[in-house]
User: Fold Peptidase A2 domain-containing protein from Sphingomonas bacterium.
Amino acid sequence: MLHLCAPLALLLAAGQPAAPRDPQVAVPPLPTPAAAEAVTPVDPAELLAFAEYEQRMRVPVRVNGAGPFQFVIDTGAERTVISRQVATALGLATGPRVNVAAMTGVVPVPTARIPSLEIDAVPRGIAIDAPQLEGPHLGADGLVGLDSLANNALLIDFDDRVMHVQKSRRRQRAAAPDEIVVVAKSVMGRLIVTDARFAGKRISVVLDTGTAVSVGNTALLKLVEDRVKTGTPIRIMSVTGAMLTADYRIVPRVSVGGIEVNTLPVAFADVPPFKRLKLDEKPALFLGMDAMKLFRQVRIDFPNREVRFMLPRDVVRPGMTARVVR
Assistant:
């Protein structure tokens, strides 16, 4: 099992708690990957450099041949979203109004018809009716949602600060010595890991690259309260511009597959996406970028419903400790 200590991260805090003390843990060297199956090199021209906005990622996207524009890859969003400013500048036709289930509630918004979308040289030929939201609230020109990622795999390389949208492999390779492979189930296009636990109790974990801080529901909070008695109220702004008050706590330990994350910051609130996924009555967590960035790489394969975490090297980043227990 891999033990990790997550750095502190939040959006808008009414009062910021003290950072947890990092545990001192010996880090044995990882097994050599020499025996692992060779991976086909990725053409450097197909790689996308990304910038962080509150620990999220922005990548260049072409909309109907124009651009590139800076979009956030959001594995927690069912639909691709475009900013109202970009839609207006491109003169995109207005589509039907739709309901968007954001972290702060369900709101009706207009859509814009996107004839074509190109991400990492992977075109989507079918037109998209993308919800229009304000650019300043998005922190980007748009969001790349699951409707544009469903038939592909997403590789996030934190060491080299690049992201790559890949075609999913039909034949999956065995895990390398420095990898942990976690199998998930697909619900409305999202990958949900059910082999996850807190304090010995099973929980559901949704991988969400669109949120900077992990978010838990009340059912999970009831488990956490036995070990973390007090929290700090924080306010989080959603992509619609509305504000959400959440109970912010440092969760001592969460395990996901063979991975154990220690001192994980979590904002607790019963947000609409939990109900949308029928996770509102059982302990559940949207695992954000604050936790995923602890790894060298994360590869999310949607068709094969698997996630590959490449373990940190024995030299770890500041604010994080790791060890592997075989």
User: Anything to note?
Assistant: The helical segments are 84-89, 135-138, 218-224, 272-276, 289-292. The chain has two domains: 2-38+171-324, 45-153. Confidence is low (pLDDT under 50) at residues 1-53, 315-326. The domain at 45-153 is CATH 2.40.70.10 (Cathepsin D, subunit A; domain 1).
